[in-house]
Design a protein that fits this description.
Structural class: alpha/beta
Helix content: 25-40%
Number of strands: 8
Distance between the termini: 83 Å
């Protein structure tokens, strides 16, 4: 019914002034026509019939007993995954040259708090928050790169690894993935042996035994390994994913940092971006162009979380400076 009508009060004259809503509706719309027909007063006689004699049927034969079977299992219920055994890091042990750290302008663990350390404390807090929020091994793997050379990617990777190793409940593995121009061991003053590329080329060689245990608490270094012209092909192979899983297997408190070649200079960074949970793209103030950052971001888009770090900035809009608070005894 598409037309709305009020139930007029004049219908009350036919049914009484105190008629109900239903009575007035009956007067207006004629609901009596929809009532069931009246029962006639005289009904025809029903023919008497002799009831049929009911015979008892033989009981049905008992069904053969089904053999007892094991309870059916739900095919959709997947078995619970077994916890993976923890893979410990550790090959040779070497001491990091503190003088080399000082000469390179890097964080020295035993030295007083500096502005550089405070800056990297802020950086590591952001990365750790996202790693813990991700709740996966992939989120704890962080790639450090830059669009071009000499923009501070290795400098950032070294300082970040040292700052993270200062955490009480973390284990840090710094991987020198710049296989074309490896420099992490030399900057730390340690000797490089077999490393990442050797483990990729030889499936029987486990990467964890190639990690160097340093004298900085909970800091390990995996060298780049043997130089090869097929580095891009090795990094693009299925072996890379298997190897990287071993680096975090059974170690929920282990952070892995990759120092890779510049994104616009070699393909290694783009290949590894598909295996990590976070990318830290380093830009050098007043040198790195926006176009270079956009191109690098496109190449690294296999990782959904790309962060930008501005290096060598000389100006702070807020005028803040770190490292002076404790020195002034305030």
């Amino acid at each position: 019914m598409t037309e709305h009508r009020k139930i007029a009060r004049e219908g009350a004259s036919k049914v009484g002034s105190n008629s109900s809503l239903f009575e007035r509706a009956n007067t207006a719309f004629g609901f009596d026509a929809l009532a069931p027909a009246k029962t006639p007063s005289a009904l025809p006689e029903v023919e008497k019939r002799v009831p049929h004699r009911v015979t008892k049927a033989a009981p049905p034969a008992a069904a053969p007993a089904r053999p007892a079977t094991a309870p059916e299992q739900n095919p959709q219920a997947a078995p619970e995954p077994k916890p993976q055994p923890a893979i410990a890091l550790g090959g040779t042990e070497q001491a990091i040259d503190r003088d080399a750290l000082t000469a390179a302008g890097l964080i020295v663990p035993e030295e007083p708090v500096t502005a550089l350390l405070e800056e990297f404390r802020i950086v590591k807090r952001e990365l750790l928050a996202d790693a813990r929020a991700g709740g996966s091994a992939k989120a704890r793997q962080i790639l450090i790169t830059s669009p071009h050379p000499a923009e501070g990617k290795t400098y950032t990777a070294l300082n970040l690894a040292i700052a993270l190793a200062a955490e009480r409940d973390l284990e840090v593995l710094l991987v020198d993935a710049d296989v074309m121009k490896p420099s992490v061991p030399s900057r730390l003053g340690i000797e490089a042996g077999k490393g990442l590329m050797d483990a990729l080329a030889d499936p029987s060689l486990d990467p964890e035994i190639l990690a160097i245990k340093t004298d900085i608490h909970q800091l390990f270094v995996l060298p780049a390994g043997s130089h090869t012209s097929n580095a891009a092909e090795y990094l693009a192979s299925a072996r890379t994913g298997e190897l990287l899983k071993r680096l975090t297997q059974g170690a929920p408190n282990r952070i892995v940092i990759f120092d890779t070649p510049p994104a616009l200079a070699a393909s290694a960074a783009a290949e590894l971006a598909a295996h990590v949970g976070q990318v830290l793209l380093v830009a050098r103030a007043d040198e790195t162009s926006r176009a270079a950052l956009e191109d690098a971001r496109q190449l690294l888009s296999a990782c959904a979380d790309i962060k930008l770090l501005l290096n060598a900035a000389q100006f702070s809009p807020s005028g803040r400076q770190f490292g002076d608070y404790g020195a002034q005894g305030e």
